[in-house]
Amino acid sequence: MKEYEAYLFDFDYTLADSSRGIVMCFQDVLKRAGYSDISDDTIKRTIGLTLEEAFAEMTGVTDSETLARWRKEYVSIADKIMNDATVLFPEVAEVLATLRERGAKTGIISTKYRYRIENFLLRHFDSLPVDIIIGGEDVKTPKPSPEGVIEAMERLGVKPENVLYCGDSVVDASTAVNAGVDFAAILHGVTPRSVFEPLPHVLITNNLIDILPTPIG
Fold first, then answer.
1. Which of 111, 112, 144, 214 lies 20 to 30 Å (CA to CA) from residue 172?
2. CATH architecture classification, 6-17+86-211
3. Main-chain phi, psi angles of 18, to 5 degrees
4. Residue-wise pLDDT tens digits, 92-107
5. Under DSSP, is residue 57 helix (H, G, I), strand (E, B) or coil?
6. How far is 75 from 69, CA to CA, in rounded Å?
7. pLDDT tens string 65-78
């Protein structure tokens, strides 16, 4: 692995596992809307999409007002339970600290709301462990649009050839391609290695430590 000037990360299934909270929120909204037969695994496969995209994919509903109402209901529930139901992956603190020690710039680009990511991270760190966080409320077009990555690069003052984007989904892989940056596939989520193998990538791994130029310990 080459050493990059900046390392950007997806959040869900890349830095943390919030699948339990996500499933709880979706199931609450879906069941109240009359959808009682959508499995937890089906919900997990939508992680990384916007809330409206996820609801539409699971239900077939395309009415924008309905999808917006469900999103608001989801957010209301998530504000109460999500961070309690989210777990930081064990290697994340070490990886982020090592990158900072080496002078690398770091950021998070996610469809998850920035304020929720910030609140979660401050439960685990004395201060935010990354230089920039761009959440779903900060962009006009969500991933796989490169908008968030491009904004992060501009604010961090780095060029695409010096950036690695790490994510767990095909959406993340497409985001990296669209932004012109290298991609590392992190196998923390539901997307298997075989799906990533034909896609542009510099690494496929189940441990974020492998993105570092030299091993730890």
1. 214
2. 3-Layer(aba) Sandwich (3.40)
3. -110, 20
4. 999 999 999 999 999 9
5. helix
6. 10
7. 999 999 999 999 99
